[in-house]
Amino acid sequence: xxxxxxxxxxxxxxxxxxxxxxxxxxxxxxxxxxxxxxxxxxxxxxxxxxxxxxxxxxxxxxxxxxxxxxxxxxxxxxxxxxxxxxxxxxxxxxxxxxxxxxxxxxxxxxxxxxxxxxxxxxxxxxxxxxxxxxxxxxxxxxxxxxxxxxxxxxxxxxxxxxxxxxxxxxxxxxxxxxxxxxxxxxxxxxxxxxxxxxxxxxxxxxxxxxxxxxxxxxxxxxxxxxxxxxxxxxxxxxxxxxxxxxxxxxxxxxxxxxxxxxxxxxxxxxxxxxxxxxxxxxxxx
Amino acid sequence: xxxxxxxxxxxxxxxxxxxxxxxxxxxxxxxxxxxxxxxxxxxxxxxxxxxxxxxxxxxxxxxxxxxxxxxxxxxxxxxxxxxxxxxxxxxxxxxxxxxxxxxxxxxxxxxxxxxxxxxxxxxxxxxxxxxxxxxxxxxxxxxxxxxxxxxxxxxxxxxxxxxxxxxx
Lengths: 285, 168
Prior knowledge:
The structure holds two protein chains of two kinds. By secondary structure, chain A is of the alpha+beta class. Chain A has two domains: 2-66, no CATH class; 133-285, Beta Barrel (Thrombin, subunit H). Chain A is built from four helices and twelve strands. In chain A, the strands form two sheets. A six-stranded antiparallel β-barrel of chain A has the order 1-2-5-4-3-12. Chain A is elongated, with a radius of gyration of 37 Å. Chain B has one domain (2-27, 41-167). Chain B is globular, with a radius of gyration of 17 Å. Classes of the chains: A alpha+beta, B mainly alpha. At the A-B interface, helix 1, helix 2 and helix 3 of A face helix 3 and helix 4 of B.
């Protein structure tokens, strides 16, 4: 029994203290050293903070360098994947193009058919969504005014722009031309207090008048039923009831503000616009 | 030419040390398969256990201590925690090496269980008592289990490698 215990103690002592041929430190010394480091780290004396910060900096830099081969491998893998995706996409696009070319003929036939049927039903009128006049203009002056929310564009009556034309930014309605000069025109923005357009709310038959309040994120919807509660994420379109704008032009969208109140935000941001399109397609001739 | 051969020889001799330091600096993130991460295992523990048990002169305790410190710095655990945990594993392994006369792979594999337990217990005790860190015990258990499970694979790889360099 005593021999067994002696063997156990000898084996432990041997494991702890024996350094071996190439070992520079004994396990016992290193374990004690580790415990002292843990204690110092916990007690956090002033020199430990700076030492740890220095050690962290060195280790992080080396860790960044050592991770480079893996990062490079990931980069190569991503490049290869991207290339494969491009090849796949190219194949898909070729097939889609072929299909669309076939569809083009079909659409031409449907268009002609539609026109014939409209004529037969006497539905054909002068008002159309197609734009037979479009001028691209650049905003030359956008002064903040407390009275009028408008801007000036670099195209005027010499470019056949007339009062009442509609101005778009991309697909969204921006405002209307209220003043034309030879080489410039003034656009009244939807944010202006004087701007009032008849609108209809998405997925409903609720009509109202969208009025500007001077703020792009808080337009006012007037003349809607008293009991109607405005929901968030609804698109507001022109209703075309004024006989001035055609129906179905997206104008604004409802959203929930930080105080959980439903407000109306215009789709076109007047502060971000540089180029606009002046059209007569939506104006009443 | 002689220098190149010397560099190559040094590289082959110090490969376990290089691997130990590299795995301390860079923790390879393995993809998860379902809810269980099968590839989550502690490579350093396998390396330390194997080399301290079979080739103690190839992997010094000083290197193990330093790799532990680096590991702590990278992971943000209290400084010295991993070092002490790895040194405890080394101590347990050294004791096994001194206590056993004949080495059998299966016996060594199963003795790896108490070695892992002992090492992780130290790790857990320090984390719980010396820091405010909290971690998932189930993940540690999972990691230990797969470390134990993958030991035979690395046992054969390291043995084969040691055979190769001893022939040179």
